[in-house]
Amino acid sequence: LTTEDNRLVSRPVVPEWNLLRSLGSEDGGNSVFVDRVLSLAFSPDGKLLAAGGGEASRSGQLTLWNVADGTLARQFPDAHSDTVYGLEFSPDGKLLAFGCGDNSVRAIDVKTGNHAWQYQGKSISHHTVALGPDRVFFIDSSITAEQRGQLLRQDKTSLKKLTPDEAAKEEERMKKIDLRFAVALDSRTGKQLWALPVDVTD
Q: Which residue, of 72, 81, 139, 148, has the greatest Cβ tally within 10 A?
């Protein structure tokens, strides 16, 4: 970096990190976690850390931790009967949404611990769960071959502007695209608002 007085200042590309604390047990001893922790999320104010996990097909675990001292703030013993994935706080910090191993998305009231709502999907990508001021978004991979075919046939006007060779290559590319549904729910009720096909090809 060059300063205003033309001095050259160097900074490390990878900053040094210091481990402040660990949650659970590092040596295999007693731990509040029944199995692997699969997802983490900080509350908007940075005071709480939510951890999700559990034993696959046996129990879902959801805990809240105080960031300042690493103490357990709250457990939600009845979060779900299957693994908890994809945690996300609402912008106001009042709700905590998460995906579950049974392809459902649920929301819990952080203060009371009560379940706010549940939405049952078909093939939800749990790591895509995102919570906005009044919407919950995620990707569902349950698009059928018939739906995929219909979507690819809907609009081919752009192909008319291409040469025959270019059009053939573009049609071949379109056959390989990864189409899924982007889904939006009402964050207050869990009701589906819309589901739109999106191209998530890498």
A: 139
Burial class (CB in 10 A: 0-12, 13-18, 19+), 37: middle
Residue length, the chain? 202
Per-residue confidence of the chain (202 residues) as pLDDT tens digits? Answer: 677 787 787 777 777 888 888 887 666 567 888 888 989 999 999 999 999 998 887 778 999 999 999 999 999 987 777 888 888 999 899 999 998 888 899 999 999 999 999 999 888 887 788 888 889 999 998 877 777 777 676 666 677 788 888 878 877 777 777 788 899 999 889 999 999 888 878 7
HSE (side-chain half, CA atoms, 13 Å) at 189: 4
CB neighbourhood size of 87 (10 A): 23
Which of 65, 129, 130 shows the shortest CA–CA distance to 100? 129
The whole-model pTM stands at 0.74
- What end-to-end distance do the CA atoms of the chain give, in Å? 34
**What CA–CA distance (Å, rounded) separates 23 from 195?**
38
Could you give the CA distance from residue 50 to residue 23 in angstroms, rounded to a whole number?
11
